Amino acid sequence: MRVIGTRTRRIDWEEMTSGRSRYTSDVPFRDLLVARFLRSPHPHALISRLDVARARRAPGVAAVITASDLGEDVRYHHHGGDLADRPPLAVNKVRYVGEEVAAIAAESAEEAEAALQLIDVEYKLLKPNFTPAESRGRKASVIHEHRPDNVAVRLRRRWGEEVAAPIELRGCYSYGRQSHASMETNRTVAKWDPEASHLDLWTSTQVPYFIRKEVAAALGLDRNQISVREVAVGGGFGSKSKISEHEVIVAALAMKTGGRPVAIEYSRFDEFAHTKPRHRFTVDLAMGADSDGRLLTQDAEITVDNGAYNHYGPSVTSFGCSIMASLYPFVKAHIDADLVYTNTLPGGQFRGYGAPQTTFAVECMVDELADRLSIDPIVFRLRNVHKPGNTTHAGWKIDHTKISECLTEARRLIDWDKRRASSGDGSGVGVAIGIHPSGSHAYEGADRSEARLLVGSDGSVKVFFGGADPGTGQRTLLAQSAAEELGLDPSQVDVEMMDSDRTPFDMGAWSSRGTSMGVSAVRKTARAAADELRSAAGEKAGVESSSVELSDGYAWAKEDRYSLGDLAILVGGPDGFGVEEAYISDTSLVSPDGVADISQSYSFAAHAVAVQVDESTGEITVVDAVAVHDSGTVINPTDAEGQVSGGVAMALGAALGEELQYEQGKVIGPAYVDYALPRAADLPPIRVRLIHGGNPRGPYGAKGIGEIALNPTAAALANAVSNAIGVRVRDLPITPDKIITAIAERDAKVRRWRRARNLSTLWNGVVRWLYPRGLLWVLHRYGRNFARSPSTRPIQSVERPDTIKKALSLVSSPEVAPVGGATDFLVTRQLGLDNRNVVVDLKGVKDLARIERHEGGLIRIGASVTLAELMASDDVPRVLRDTAEQIASPQIRESATVAGNLCQQKRCWFYRSGFDCYKAGGPTCPCYAVIGDHRFYHAAMQAHRCQAVTPSDLATTLLALNAVALVDGPDGSRQLPIEYFYEGPGEPALRHGEIVSALEIPSQSGRMSVFEKLNRWHGDFAIISAAASAVTTEGRFRDTRIALGAMAPTPIRLNAVEEELEGLSFSDPAIEKAAAAWLGEVDPLPANEWKVEAAYGLIKRALRNLERGSSG
Amino acid sequence: MSTPKRLVTLRVNGATKEVEIQPGSALLGVLRNDLGLTGTKAACGRGECGACTVLVGGRPVMSCVTLAETVTAEVQTIESISESALRLREAFAEQGAFQCGYCTPGQIVRGFALLSDSSLQDNDDLRKAISGNICRCTGYDPIVGALKTASSRQQQ
Question: Which residues of A touch B126 (CB under 8 A)?
């Protein structure tokens, strides 16, 4: 094969890398209207009143719809029958925070949002069930009347034969809610032509077919009345692999606007808060083996949190069961799975489709069994994996597998034996395997894929294909196949996709079917076209068509060559000719009992991960990751490797940090900054190896690769962590808090810290006791009635003074916001947390933008010096450069200023997620962090009503450097030591009309200073920051200053530690004790006690680095 | 409720543009909506992902959290950078450094700015330098590879 198997550039690379690809929002429209949705603020409530009359009359409003406009019996079809439980707009009842209640199309976003406020809606609150346990409890509310037990689907798989296992272990594994976080948020433009009664849709989707099907059904249209148009799609990962919740609504609006197009574009907030995440699985698993290490039994009870509606939850659950019973040839596999409704955002399709969750459980348990039997985990797996010819309990026929080779190669690549021998003390290595079908025959017709191919009279070749390429590279694979068959270069093949008028039937990109179905269809079609060309050339040359060869853009018959264009005219006339073929796979439709050979081939993989765990701070560093895959013949190695490395990265995210968290049913931190997906610096190189080798049932011998790429990774990581520290964490993601807590349990440690005893901590104790016992409920239910509502006034003007004097005269009004880079100002305005409407940009003031070194070593840093300038300056102490380097991103550091960093608002993720909290809403409102997720970004000491901390890293370092802020104001200038700079979390002690003009750092002569930070991803705000500074010239700690950030509402000095360190030599064992001298002053919340331990670890690390730095 | 628009002068991709904008507008919206430069992508609107990266005065910034009225230096977007960054773009194509392509204009602009900084040869430094640009598809290896490839070709 010439083209198949060779590294091939994406055929669309020129547009994709130049910004010319047209995504939905890049398509120009005239008279575009903007849609906004009214969403439920309540997790469970009856809609007692819904009147949109006033909104309809509001300025700029073109259309308003509610469920009554669609028909109250309309449901998304999804799996059909009584599993179809979801109306496009809420009917009489809302079941989760964010559910769509009404929708508006207006001339502008502002007008649409203003009109939303005019919708008269009243709710009668019902008791919500937030967890499957609550939903199954005796006092549970009924979420859907047709499921009084709140169980959407109950599966009971009884596979294999009863057998007794001499050794059985049990464990409960859970895999959290992960967000797809596609770079392009969900968006759609709908345009209705009233005269032709035709609807056009431009939508970021993986499945034009399903969009058309569901929109037609919901709106009572014929499918032929709907056209889905081709656009570039900015990532899907399953999120766009079926209809989402906005397409029908926007289409319905568009049918009421007299032909004007309507657009909905989800914000990043919407994307995290309102699109369907990975279902949370809890797998209570018992697995048994014999003493030779042969796996015998698998008994599982799975609970899947469905959220409030079925969005493929039933099939995700069923598929997860099939995967776990198919990983190994268990003699017995009994799986009970309950898909449980809760009053939370519904889960949905996500790359892997239940497989990552159940694979995680099985592959961790395999390691636990191997450990019990003292068998090497790879040897153990090699004894148990499937052999070619096996059929799994789920009915999957394993004709072809190279899983043993994958394991052996992973072992070699990661240097398993050596790493394993030297593991412990924080370093470890782990392995796991995975299996995945190459496309599932999940629906009638899913075994069919069609393609059309045109050969033009100019010799051009164009493929028409109905699926969508959301980034998988399928477009190029299709071109490669056509090029292979027709003797062309892939760049000579044009591929048009998606457009439902112009392309034949295909169900789209899901279930790893892009290659197995799409390439099969194009191969068949291109072969038919090639046959036509060969016959024409053979006839012309008077030879057998079988002797004609297609290559280099010509048909070669004996010595003669014929251009494809000329032959195309011969075959089809002046416009060339076209061929259309349908490929039908040899597979069986999924069956209710979960047993069917649903795919024409099954892919396998072995992943190995090596980690370094810092036991004192809980940080896990992935030092190596290898992924060895058996996906048959690889059509485009560059593409396949990219699928794998991206999948591994995504799975490492889920294993280490990514998880959507909720409080009172509302998502916490719907922003990239709060969502710990890996950034480039968080990952090691991911080494991918593809074990080649033809699989008889796939096109050119290929199998699927999109989803298996992430199935094994999380278990490999968890197994590595267990190998490193001897503790098993079974609940993903494995965040530092879980490590610290697990280690404390392992060592049966007596806790090192004591709660401070004073009036304030006593009071805190009482309040914290009361919060879960009704106080939170009262404040949440009633106190919020008095909350300040966030307001957004448009900005009136942006002023750019060029002198401090002018700046001071401008900032005298409370309406005025002095800004540096304004990078956070624009965000807090979006969030309704900053209402000031005149901006004074201080960057134009030259006097504020300088770094000066004065005699005697005093350094003066202007307020509007950017963090990038700070990093580039040789005049400032190195520790400041080191600190700045760990703040945000290079781009933000180009804009953000030193004073802006100090003055930024708190980062509490309740405060910044639209919760009416004490700080945002006022004194009658609760602090949600008291019992909400406060593991990372909240105070562990000195907090009172608000648990937030000061986010500035510079503040921590400047405190250790004894810096002073110079403040200018209407009454002149004053000096404000950093120690007194804050009155509260992120709340500078600046008086009205004052600005920070500079920071002064005293001479650091003879001093050594270091900065340490614990965070969840590179550039994130600190979970804990620590700065230490001392005179170290005598090999002893002298005049030490230690500052701790993000532990208390404001950065604090640890005077007790400083005193105990005074005079200690670097080698003195008493340093350990000195570093603990502050531990009687803390007052942690229940889930951030670990921060105290980690802060102690971070201080010790800072002191060690201080010694090293001064001796090095 | 809206405030009067204000006329601002921006230098974008070598041309001077006068644009009427709402005071306080972010540069990103002005580029995309008023100047029709849709190559720069919006993905978070909060300066957290890098998809909207443009150069201002040659320095990479997040255009979604840059006030248009404070921009005095020349703005370069992917539309002009793509021509100068052909080598980098080719390296992206060879290495598979984009999949869905949505973060790619931001990655190219960021990468282009980086290539002029010869101190960044070390893998760790390179990874830190692109950590402001989220990619959800590739796992970053191919992007690091493309930057290194383009950098070594540049030095030849």
Answer: 680
